[in-house]
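Weekly structure sync, notes
Attendees: PL (lead), two postdocs, one rotation student
Agenda item 3: pending single-chain targets
PL asked that the sequence for the first pending target be pasted directly into the notes so everyone works from the same version. It is reproduced below exactly as submitted, 189 residues in total.
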Amino acid sequence: MPRRWWILGDGMEEVAFKRVPEGWLFTAPAVWPRRATYLVSDAQKEALARRLRWMWRVSFLIIFALTSVLAPLTAEARPTVRWGAVGAMALAVLAFGALYRRVALAPLIENLAPTRARITRRDAFLTQAATYSTGAIVTLGLTGVVLLAASLYHGLAEAWDWTAILGTLLFGFTAAYFAALLWAKRRMG
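Predicted structure, written out during the meeting:
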């Protein structure tokens, strides 16, 4: 299925899976690093992927909706208020993800036994490079570059307060990550 760059979450569900001879390894997305991995069949993978796809799309819609509302409301506010709005948005997305995992994913994996096999960070990175469209990688990378430039400008023109430092670190990492992802995708052919 071709990936569409304008749907930024398109293909994100594939990062939760890794093909193995016995089927698929599945690790549900979570905030905390310790997560169980399960061996699932093709049919189970499709059911899980469908729910993950929906979760990622709704998460992006929540981010877009909250950004559309909070950005104008906090445009003239102090930086601490703006970062508070960003924190509230992050908490809303995390709360939605945790609730959705409990309600929609847990019933599909509750009877599965965890396996000792793991999906490594390298596996997930290579899956992202193979699955994400070039347009989505470029869009997310350029967003990171623009936000990095804004953070640097804030630090250089106004003050290197905690918001400028945090923004520079966060968006610098984002820009570098998506540049590495694009490089990996190009190497794959």
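Discussion points:
- The chain has five helices and four strands.
- The chain has a mean pLDDT of 85.
Action: rotation student to compare against the earlier draft before next sync.
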